[in-house]
Amino acid sequence: MPGRLLELHVENFRSLRDVTIPLGPLTVLVGPNGVGKSNVLKVFDLLADIIRTDLEPALDARGGFDEVSFWGGSRPPTSMTIRVKAAWTTHASPSAPDEYGLTIRRRSLPHNPGSYTLSREETFAFKRTRGRGRRITIAGEEARVRDKQAAGTEEDSGSFGIQKLSSGLSTLPRLTSSDGGEEVARVAQELSAFRVFDVDVEAARAPSRVLRRRYHELSPQADNLAEFLLHLSSEDESWEDLVADARAILPQLEDIEFAAVGGSSQQVHVMLRERGLRHSTPLKDASYGTVRLLGLLALLYDPDPPAFTCIEEIDHGLHPQALTLIVERLREAAERTQFIVATHSPALVDRLRPDEFIVCDRDENGASIIPALTEQEVEAIVEESGDQPLGELWFSGVLGGDLTGDEL
């Protein structure tokens, strides 16, 4: 089983004023528009961008600190913090997790209204052999390495220079293994493998160029759906299961086939053979829901997925009868990757367990409340209700939230 993210803590990011979110193999964020579900996903997108480009470019691409930080109140906050706990490195476990923390501080310039300077602080903590641990702290232009001894004391293992606003996520993986580079590189690798999946139906309908390579990756928008499904079709067992799932949801479907498209480059088109029709239906002529379904099934049958996948509004365009199967496949795929899914569909929530979903709400000041209820509180409400379906309890307001508002 792959390593897991265990917890996310965020302060002053968009609507996330102060939240701590436990993360399991499958975590479904449930709530109406405007409560901050998408902002949770945007935290991971920011961290991945910091790894790719560094701290300043990642902030600049989002409009700067004031656009990224908490939007409530009369003025921007003076700091923003993101912390994650995970079990990624060799000796990590849920009881002794890897930890990463980033705090960005904003200081206004008194003689230049509206202007400010930024500073950052970072910490990395890892479990090592024989009860030892390692902590790397970054502040200003210095990174310092400390080793924790078995007796609980810390020993200074040295320091080195780092550019003022460079992130350790983007620069420290170049350290030697003895200085902690191997552990930092693993954290950066896992966070950069984050993917937000949202099927672009028009792009997914189009033919895909056939690429002759060993590794095939489904794009985040599924715009290479035909090529990826062709690749999956060579995986006999999983392909048969995928087609069987599609048939179960699309009763007229008999088979999924492929047709070559002429031209200078070899391309492939998905064709749907349907009961009672003389000709197969090209995917470009299939319904919106059919294309989204095939994109999701391709994702859920991916034999080599990234470490962490987020799916916004997974139920969009799907018939409620399809959701039971989709939830079952999510649980199976969560053995290979980790999922955060956002939804406001009571029909999907009906099919979840209390440990798989987190109720999201928002207070009168615009701050997200995530989770709005603990797992134990949800279980108690379910028991008191006589085991009513979770979706009905949430939609009726018993589990909090209302179905109004716009996403911050």
TrEMBL record:
Superkingdom classification of source: Bacteria
PANTHER family (UniProt xref): ATPASE AAA-TYPE CORE DOMAIN-CONTAINING PROTEIN, ATPASE-LIKE PROTEIN
Protein source organism: Streptomyces gossypii
Protein name: AAA family ATPase
ATPase AAA-type core domain span: 26-350
